[in-house]
Specification:
single chain, 90 residues, alpha+beta, two-stranded antiparallel sheet, 18% strand, globular
Length: 90
Amino acid sequence: MNDDERFERVLTELGRLLLAMGDLAQHVVLIGGQVPSLLARQRRGRGPMQVRTQTGVTVTRPFSLESDLLFDVANSGFLADRLPEVLRAQ
């Protein structure tokens, strides 16, 4: 499996998780390593992404496997009770 195929697999898994969340997905934000990967892909198509830190370190990778979802519990009301159930099912 090449890097593009791995990245597609990660995106597919994220998509399935968000679909499984149903109404909960409106309270989820993708954060972490997938964000710069997706932005780089949107700007340049396929190919490596490059992130430069404030300390001057540059990291070049074809994609990131780091997927983090931020869930807004405070504003999701009773839907938040469903989150553990959905995550266990995945």
